[in-house]
Amino acid sequence: MTAPFSLPGLPGLNLQVPTFRLPAFVTRLGQRLPQWPHTLGLVGGLNGLLLMKLLDTETLEPLTGRVFAVEVEDTGAAARFTFDGLRFVPLLAADGPAPDLRFCATLSAYLQLLARQEDPDTLFFQRRLVIEGDTELGLLVKNLLDAVEWPRLPFRTARS
After folding, report:
1. What domains sit in the chain, N to C, each tagged with a CATH number?
2. What pLDDT is stored for residue 96 in this prediction?
3. With left for phi above 0 and alpha for psi between -120 and 50, is residue 127 left, alpha or beta?
4. pLDDT digits (tens, 9 = 90+) for 97-132
5. How would DSSP label each residue in 58-89?
6. CB 4 within 8 A of CB 16
7. Which of 79, 99, 123, 160 qualifies as a FRET site for 109, CA 20 to 30 Å off?
8. How far apart are CA 79 and CA 33, in angstroms?
9. What are the distances in angstroms from CA 28 to CA 21, 55, 98, 124?
10. How far apart are CA 71 and CA 20, in angstroms?
């Protein structure tokens, strides 16, 4: 069992993301649905990090023109995108170029990464996170995401 974590910016709110896997019918259903909403959501979030200055375009320069794929294996979701030097751009054509870097994990593994409950190395060595493609690029992306300093958000409880 993993230890509880505090959400970034919410120090008094301890939560725990359990390790789980969605049923196979969810995967089959998700694979039949359009993938563009996942891609637009992920790209929008990444571009939001740029706007909030949590990611710096100068440090992202080595990502320019590279193709990335992020797959959530138990939801059937897949997102492909690139970085054009200024922003992240969705790739919506299914027959586009092969990704330079591909990440694949379950929904719970991604949630644990986002919450910083688990680190990518641990998930990789537990075989819960698959990273395929350019190894140097994968290490660069991992280090860039690890360096993100989440802002502290004001938090009030009912007692405040």
Report:
1. 24-146 (3.30.1050.10)
2. 84
3. left
4. 999 999 999 999 999 998 889 999 999 999 999 999
5. TTTGGGBT-EEEEEETTTTEEEEEEE-SSSEE
6. yes
7. 99
8. 12
9. 14, 34, 23, 25
10. 16
